[in-house]
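Exam revision sheet. Question 4 asks you to relate a sequence to its structure. Input first:
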Amino acid sequence: MALNIADLFEHAVDAAPDKPAVKVGDRTVTYAELESESNKLAHYLQAQGVQPGDHVAIYAKNSIEHVVAVLAVVKIRAVTINVNYRYVEGELDYLFDNSDAVAVIFERTYAPLVAKCAPKHDKLTTFVAIPDVIEPDDQSDISEFGGVLYADALAGQSDVRDFGERSPDDLHIIYTGGTTGFPKGVMWRHEDFWRVLGGGIDFYTGEPLSEYDQSEQAKQDGRMVTFPLSPLMHGGAQAGLLMHLFAGHLTILEPKFDPQRTWEIIDENGVMLIFMTGDAMARPLIEEFERKAATGTPYDGNSLFAVSSSAAIFSPEVKERWIAALPNPVYTDSVGASETGFQGMGMQDKEHISSDGPVVALGPNSVVLDEQNNVLDMESNVGKIGRLGRGGSVPVGYYKDPEKSAATFLEVDGKRYSVPGDFARIEEGNRVTLLGRGSNCVNTGGEKVYPEEVEMAIKRHPAVYDVLVVGIPDAKFGQAVAAVVQPREGETVELEELREFLREYLSGYKLPRALTLVPEIPRNATGKAQYPRAKELAIEDLKTREGVSA
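Answer key, structure tokens:
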């Protein structure tokens, strides 16, 4: 046995075979059923020539088949490649080429795009079509590129676990969301991935777990009902799923985020823990909760004891509304990235909500580095801003990108650190305030402005639904702070009024000098901000205004 994702799942199967593992819609599968189905798919992939170390793309929304696919691939020591199901042809071509995928497991509704891409990728020879979870009757043609239906692939395959010994050094790759430039494949050793993303280190105490600790928990009665709201093609949701499978919990998944459906699922299933992506999910959820309460037939929500947000801003204004409506759960901001794993967590209550950014206690091996890549002492540098990094279990690097690997995965005093570029301010008590990605920092007249800090203040404005802050060219200051705002329905926002409103929360140099109103803020499927597109919108608006004034 090894500290390997497949082994850790199989330990849970052996400990609690009859417990429910995953639920999607009306279908629930037990740990034994999930094991049986994934073993069959694993044997099919082996029969098609998929070897240890080969890359298998998974191109699907959240579904039980998606979970089966992930488990089947790791069982045969192959490597999963997460595919954004919103990709267009060119983006798919890039990913299939960059990842060297030899097989793709895809929802049948995406067959037309697979058909366009398949002839251009000689290595891609195995195609398995799973039912579309939203459109199960989809009949898209898969014959022209040799596709096989999921049910046919499993038919006649053995469900026996006979895959041989695995290694903690097997690779697990997570492609980043690609908010700036093309997505990059972050290469993790299985053991390192488990340590920092799969629960292999206790998030609260920092103590490392042993191989069977989670599966021993799986034997206990009353395991948790968890509900990650993000797509499994996002690394955070995938990590949350695997962590809870290792420990015998029930994970509920939905193929599409819908606030009303989310609250119905929480109440119907007694969901205890939800994971969400900042305001992109938190705001519509609390607005739906408030809407229903106003009808006199409110949602219950009393089963929730933990609400966790990561990967995007969970703003003070939205947090305050959650805590007012649902005071009993524990609210946490989790900090991390595909390149670092879990770095720290901050607990929030109504008396302690930061207006600057998420304030988190740093986890094991998390550090702050200065501009010369020196690790800063946390006690003597309170108030100083640096880059957030993590040592200990660190990825091998980016797949096929040694240059970017060298820039992100640094060696300092003989230790390797992952430093993807997030800036943080050191606070007292081994805590930091997260300020955002340095590549998005606005340098205006020599002053550095971190967009997420400004965004959190702007979101307090009653007419603002969503916002991104970017830097645009400015003749006087080099860059100017620009706000791209999605107003609430029926509302509008004026620049000078917004600036006046913000003076209570921000220094003058941080106030936006330009305002662009848009019908919808550009975000990807996981809710992550698309800053390059927001910048394009702001510059286009600026040029239009200059053209009008000329």
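Marking note for examiners. The mean pLDDT is 91.
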